[in-house]
Amino acid sequence: MGNKISHRIIKRKKTFRTNSYPSRDSNSNAISTDYSDSSNAQLVPQLKTVDGRPYFEENFSTYIDIGCGPGHWSFEIAQEYPYAEVYGIDILSSFPSKIKPKNCHFKTCDILEGLPFDDNEFDYIFMRHMLASIKAYQWFSVLKDIKRVLKSGGVIESVELNCTPHSIGPVQTQFMKICNDAMSDAFDIDLKLKFGPMFKDLGFQNVTFTSKYISLGKWDANAGKIGQIWTTNTVQMAEAVKSILLPHMKLTDDEWDRMFKTMYFDEVDKYHSYQEHYIVLATKG
Length: 285
Description:
- This protein has helices at residues 3-15, 72-80, 139-149, 170-183, 192-201, 226-240, 242-249, 253-270, and strands at 17-19, 29-32, 49-50, 53-54, 62-66, 85-90, 104-108, 122-128, 150-161, 205-215, 274-283.
- By secondary structure, the chain is α/β, with parallel strands linked by helices.
- It has a single domain (3-283), classed as Vaccinia Virus protein VP39 (Rossmann fold), CATH 3.40.50.150.
- The chain has a nine-stranded mixed β-sheet with strand order 1-2-10-11-9-8-5-6-7, sandwiched between helices. A two-stranded antiparallel sheet has the order 3-4.
- The radius of gyration is 19 Å and the shape is globular.
């Protein structure tokens, strides 16, 4: 194991610690960290190994970040592993075109139309928060194409979130009812129940599934700034898919904006809201 990768894993172990949030339906842990000196943070899973080995290998040379957004994860990997080639893809071009590491590349493409890469091209695939972009019946074919471009022995890391936060107020309860009623036929609200099994059905190996909680807002003092950062990220992600969701939900722009302002800048602290994220790590045989 090279020193660079060992350092990365040790750094993540030092950065994240877990505490339990009370929950009626899960024994999962909460991601809690001190970001008192940081203005930004990425959601990083606390799993460190796949089949007993570090999930970042020193011989990994190709990475892809699916649904990369502005490219934070791609930047981090490209800077930390300058010998590797890192590709970020998204349906929207919100990533930088000039100021970026030389080994970091971005493509605009629609994952539903297939990945524009050759078979067995990537050592590591990272995908997160695609629930509002992939309909229920599309997940299997998307994961099948992901497996196609993953090398034998390569790793996929997929992070999704439970659309309905825990311990929510009346406005968010109303919003989630509208959301669930409008989109249950189109988007897989209960993806958590099927997420891990889908990977196994497609023949992925060493499939590991875990759930983690992140607080929303400022109420959890032990979380430092992570709750505030994740609240901001949640609102930004919702804005990114607003045009997709509004036609299903039959809300006006003003109604959407008022509800989000109340939910994420008032109720989350009053009701101590927190959100569940589920993480799958798996390998291709």
